[in-house]
Amino acid sequence: MKLEKIRFFPSYRRSEKTYPYRALIGVGGNEGEVKKRFVALYRLLQNDPRLHVQESSPLFKNPPFGYAHQNDFYNAVMVVETSLHVNALLKILLHVEKRFRRVRLFKNGPRTLDLDIIFFNHERRHQKHVTIPHPQWQERLSVGVPLLALKRFKG
């Protein structure tokens, strides 16, 4: 894994507002101009009044897993405070992926942007569309290494 820094990755910002929920979002991509897309993503999320990006890790470049015949991935994690419950947050993140032209061709395939809810408010849940904490997060360097790079996240 290779560490890289770009604008907003890493970052830390205090919120002037109080939000009831806190989530750890995994961010990844390997198609097109990923670094520019991550900066645009940060700005988009920060401008949504329902969300506050409290902290983001540096970017890490790592080889793909599952399907190896594709570009290396850039990965980071973000600590997001939100007024949205987990299902509403998931809906917003899926919409953001589409906005950034995410196409789901096959499992572990190439993607412009991948957003996953890793943790949400210390909750545990298993529903059709979302499992919290995210399955196998501990086994994925693409989550574990950026998570270790966060300065203030305590779970």
Structural class: alpha+beta
Arithmetic mean of pLDDT: 87
Domain tally: 1
Number of helices: 3
Q: Which homologous superfamily in CATH is the superfamily? A: 7,8-Dihydro-6-hydroxymethylpterin-pyrophosphokinase HPPK
Task: State the end-to-end CA separation.
Answer: 23 Å
* CATH topology assignment: Alpha-Beta Plaits
Give an overview in words.
It is a single chain. Strands 1, 2, 3, 4, 5, 6 and 7 form a 7-stranded antiparallel β-sheet that branches. The chain has a two-stranded antiparallel sheet with strand order 8-9. With 155 residues, the protein is an alpha+beta fold. A hairpin with a 4-residue loop joins strand 8 (125-126) and strand 9. Helix content is 23%, strand content 29%. It has a single domain (2-149), classed as Alpha-Beta Plaits, CATH 3.30.70. It has 3 helices and 9 strands; from the N terminus they run E-E-E-H-E-E-E-H-E-E-E-H. The protein has helices at residues 34-46, 86-99, 141-149; strands at 2-4, 11-12, 21-29, 51-56, 59-62, 73-82, 114-120, 125-126, 131-132. The longest helix has 14 residues, at 86-99. The radius of gyration is 14 Å and the shape is globular.
